[in-house]
Amino acid sequence: MRITGTGHASMRIDTAAGSILCDPWVNPAYFASWFPFPDNSLLDWESLGQVDYLYVSHLHRDHFDAAHLTRFVSKKATVLLPEYPTSELEDELRELGFTSFIETKTNEVVELDGGLKVMIQALTSPTDGPIGDSSLWVEYDGVRLLNQNDARPSDLSTFAELGHVHAHMLQFSGAIWYPMVYELPQAAKTAFGKQKRDRQFDRTWRYIDDLKASHVFPIAGPPCFLDDELWQFNDVFGDEGNIFPDQSVFMREYAKVGGTNGVVLLPGSVAEVTADSCTTTHPTDVDEFFANKKAHLEEMRERKRPIIEAEKASWRHPEIDVLKEMKRVIEPLLDESLYLAKGVGGPVRFDLVGYDGESVESIVVDFPGKQVRPYGDEKVRYRFRTERALVEHLLFIDEVDWVNSLFLSCRFSAARIGQYNEFVYAFFKCLSEERLQYAEGWYDEHLKNADKEDIRLGDWVVQRRCPHLKADLTRFGIVEGNQLTCQLHGWRFDLSSGRCLTSVGHEIRAHRAE
Predict the structure, then answer these.
(1) Residue 207's pLDDT band (boundaries 50, 70, 90)?
(2) What is the pLDDT of residues 244-296, one digit of tens each?
(3) What's this model's pTM, rounded to 2 decimal places?
(4) How large is the average pLDDT for residues 466-473?
(5) What was the pLDDT predicted at 448?
(6) Is there a contact between 215 and 265 (Cβ–Cβ < 8 Å)?
(7) pLDDT at 242 over 80
(8) What is the DSSP letter of 93?
(9) CB–CB of 513/456 below 8 Å?
(10) From CA 224, how far away is CA 266, in angstroms rounded?
């Protein structure tokens, strides 16, 4: 099995029975804030795109690059489609010209021509990507690969049961806006960032230990930030609170916990994997490349500057009445929302900065009141501050997922009262009838059917499944004193009261052991 690194979470898998291109991403994403690093735009995509199969794990724009798919990937390729609750991914790909699809069933092996076997595990919580994320397992001639990308299954036992895995690709770096955009003192922001960075690595070590693959490939991050306004987010300043460590940092940290089987793929690297070995060739010296990371970023910044400026010039739509359009889009969804609206539990404010950089229009999405209205000087649960032009553009293009656009862009600042509230982001990911109804149904099923099985962790008896996304706490639960931490996503609970310390709306059942 030959694996060609094509950047970020992307790779091309070649076997004698066919080739699979996974998640090709080249063009900037999220309001031109994210770019792949190392740069993959100079690869021979004309050749790389001539494949038998295409796998797009989910609709995040650093995995689903519509412009690149349209231009470079053969429309003769058969799409390996995850089993998602909505048809959005298939609809988007059909619109780009793809016509051949294999609709997989989650956790069921499919045998393709020539003895090539694949299995896709789809995750379908409203907080998994834009209504879904997935992982791809591949087997040919006794060699097995798991492309986990940035999916976070509760465990990897389903893949392990299919036989020893030889190549395990997984995320290790950040892919979020927290804590960088929050209006916090720098010391607090650094402390929270370090905590998140450590959790990211802890989760990665847990997955690696679960699967025990022959070789581990760090992928799916980090992005780089080439706009001058976002430059400080790159991990080149010695900031221990930066959540975007690169592959060279992964290799150092992995060595500290005894890892000796890590393999870095640069764009253009080729790994030949057999049941007994992995031989990798690179387009340049890996250590030297990362030693000169800042210089590479600076060169990329100058080369990509015209792209960023062109994107920025397209965002303004002064003809749009933002308040009127937000009411039109959001109020019908508020009327239909039970769980999400109750979960948010208060008003959320958007401060929109005008073209002059000073004037501000404040709009409130009032979840209890089920309306969108001008801000009335009341306390709000969350406050977001961003350029008016960005929201104009979201409304202009009828964007149904403000998380997979505005929030991931990091082109905003935020403040909140109290804990993190996942329902805020779940709602703004579901600005369509189809998505909202799915999310409401998912929460209805999962909140009504709380896990009934108990386990013992230290001096405590707790429910087996995490109230957040049902991770198995026998594998991911760590108890220290009266607190439990679920290491899958870093959520913490006070066991004495059952209260979630990370977010609202997720109590845990717990009591001291006899």
Answers:
(1) very high
(2) 999 999 999 999 999 999 999 999 999 999 999 999 999 999 999 999 999 99
(3) 0.88
(4) 77
(5) 59
(6) no
(7) yes
(8) H
(9) yes
(10) 14
Which tens digit of pLDDT belongs to each residue from 144-156? Answer: 999 999 999 988 9
Q: For residues 423 and 426, give the distance between their C-alpha atoms in angstroms, rounded to a whole number.
A: 5
In angstroms, the CA 121 to CA 395 distance is 33
User: How far is CA 125 from each of CA 159, 353, 474, 482, rounded to the nearest angstrom?
Assistant: 20, 33, 21, 29
- Average of per-residue pLDDT across 495-508: 86
DSSP result, 386-451:
EEHHHHHHHHHTT-S-SIIIIIHHT-EEEEESSSB-HHHHHHHT--SHHHHHHHHHHHHHHHHS--
- Show contacts of 163-166: CB within 8 Å, 24+ apart: 163/139, 164/212, 164/213, 164/214, 165/137, 165/211, 165/212, 165/213, 165/214, 166/1, 166/213, 166/214, 166/215, 166/273, 166/274, 166/275, 166/278
Closest-CA residue to 47 (of 63, 81, 66, 24): 24
Sheet holding 510-512, edge to edge: 454-457, 460-463, 510-512
Q: Are 117 and 140 in contact (CB under 8 A)?
A: yes
Task: Name the pLDDT band for 450 (thresholds 50, 70, 90).
Answer: low
Environment class of 194 (CB within 10 Å of its CB; exposed 0-12, middle 13-18, buried 19+): middle
* Helix 322-336 vs helix 388-396: crossing angle, to nearest 10: 60
* Residue 493 and residue 466 in contact, taking contact as beta carbons nearer than 8 Å: no
Q: Which tokens in the block code for residue 97?
A: 């010209």
Both tokens of 391, joined, read 């929201």
Strands (E), 220-285: 223-224, 270-273, 278-281
pLDDT of residue 445: 76
Report the first-to-last Cα separation within the chain, whole angstroms: 54
